[in-house]
Amino acid sequence: MSSQYPKLFVKCMVMRMIPSCNHGTFGHGCINNCSGQCIDELEPMCNKQTGHCDRGCKPGYTSAFCNESCVNSYGKDCRYPCSTHCFNGTCDIFNGSCVSGCVDGFIGDKCNQVNQSDVEVLSRSPDDKQEDTCSVGLSISIGFNALLIIIISVLIWNHYRNEHPGDSCPCWKSPVYEKSTAPVGQESTYQELNIIENQYQTINPN
């Protein structure tokens, strides 16, 4: 056992002779830089030999070197998931705010508040939506049929005008409205003549 003490002493002396890396660097020759996201009381520093962040990472970062940003999460060690109401499910890695906005129906920095103006729309049943769809379809059908009737009427009128270029109001022409060829007052005159002739015959019976 006593033979091991000189070796340990030599090892400790060698380690003391190796210069310590400055803050922010690590490894052999101190040629590697720390990630800059390690937690430290004075400045972000890492283990001067391994480069690991022994005290943990700043919010928004994870891994032993604290060089990986949070994905769909935020905060210290990325322990808090982004709100499911964030658009695309992404949020700020530090405070969890939805950087791309909210999905329909939600508002707020973290999209955790219900948008009251959309409550009625979100609460409507599929039957109500189907009824609205049917109403819209019926209205479109009625409008299309009315337009079709108007177009057909115009085409018929134009066809009649081409066939009868002189008639402007064909609907008024009817046998009821045709002018009589008999002179006005002819029948009454004939009756008056018959009365005068009968009186004459009474006065002169021969």
Mean pLDDT: 76
Structural class: mainly alpha
- Work out the radius of gyration: 53 Å
Low-pLDDT parts are: 8-15
How would you portray this structure in words?
The protein has 4 helices and 8 strands. It has 206 residues and is mainly alpha-helical. A two-stranded antiparallel sheet has the order 1-2. The protein has a two-stranded antiparallel ribbon with strand order 3-4. The radius of gyration is 53 Å and the shape is rod-shaped.
What's this model, at a glance?
Helices cover 36% and strands 8% of the residues.
List the helices and strands and how they pair.
Layout: H1 4-17, E1 25-26, E2 32-33, E3 61-62, E4 68-69, E5 73-74, E6 80-81, E7 106-107, E8 113-114, H2 119-123, H3 126-163, H4 186-203
Antiparallel strand pairs: 1-2, 3-4, 5-6, 7-8
